[in-house]
Amino acid sequence: MRRDGAANREKVLRAAEQVFAENGAAASTDEVARRAGVSIATVFRNFATKQDLIEATAARHLEKLTAEAVRIADGPDAGRAFATLFRTLAMAGPVKMSLLDLLPPHEDDGTGLSPSVTEAADAFHAALDGALRRAQAAGAARPEVTGDDISFLLRALAHATRAGEGESLDRAVGVVLDGLRVPH
Questions:
Q1: Both 24 and 65 in a single domain?
Q2: Which residue from 8, 35, 64, 163 puts its CA 20 to 30 A from 131's CA?
Q3: Contact 158/96 with Cβ under 8 angstroms?
Q4: What pLDDT does residue 179 have?
Q5: DSSP tally for the chain: helices H, then strands E
Q6: What is the pLDDT of residues 32-51, one digit of tens each?
Q7: Which residues of 59-78 are buried (b: 16+ CB within 10 A; e: fewer)?
Q8: Which residues are CB-neighbours of 128 under 8 A, at least 6 positions away?
Q9: 19 touches 53 (CB < 8 A)
């Protein structure tokens, strides 16, 4: 892909993340093109359908969260790193859930999520599980808590809040983190 083509694709994906997070299923590809500063033809040259754009946007967002999770989790204090990661993911949760809610449900017959979204989600969960295990090994997180529990809590917080609800979300995250710590 030519450099300007790759730059346009990236602009489209950044714009799509914002537009889909704000408008959900009602988001239009015309608005994505407008915000990206490209023509609608450029959007469809990169993504044949709106669903392809949604899937690419969701996969890209999960990849960004995974990279952030790995970066944070590698901190020297496993407990502090896990708390920082949980807080970071909780703040990103409303956008993540808006994007994931636009995807078709995963079905056992092989249809549903695209391979790129499935791979990105698996990598994200592996990074989250790794951070949790490090915190548990350091005695900073309850040993009975699972990665699925953490994902459930993050989804619940994301569905209960909207982007920008800083103080309320921050307090709720603090309460959840207190509950995840090993009681003394």
A1: no
A2: 163
A3: yes
A4: 93
A5: 8, 0
A6: 999 999 999 999 999 999 99
A7: bbbbeebbebbbebbeeeeb
A8: 69, 85, 89, 147, 150, 151
A9: no
Report the sign of the C-alpha dihedral through residues 116, 119, 124, 127, in that order. Answer: negative
Single-letter amino acid, residue 2: R
For the stretch 127-139, pLDDT in tens is: 999 999 999 999 9
* Domain shared by 109 and 80, yes or no: yes
- Quote the Cα angle for 69-106-101, to 5°: 65
> Domains in the chain: how many in total?
2
- 38 and 125 within one domain: no
DSSP one-letter code for 107: -
| Residues counted in the chain | 184
Give residue 7's domain range: 1-48
> Tokens at residue 123, please?
């990598």
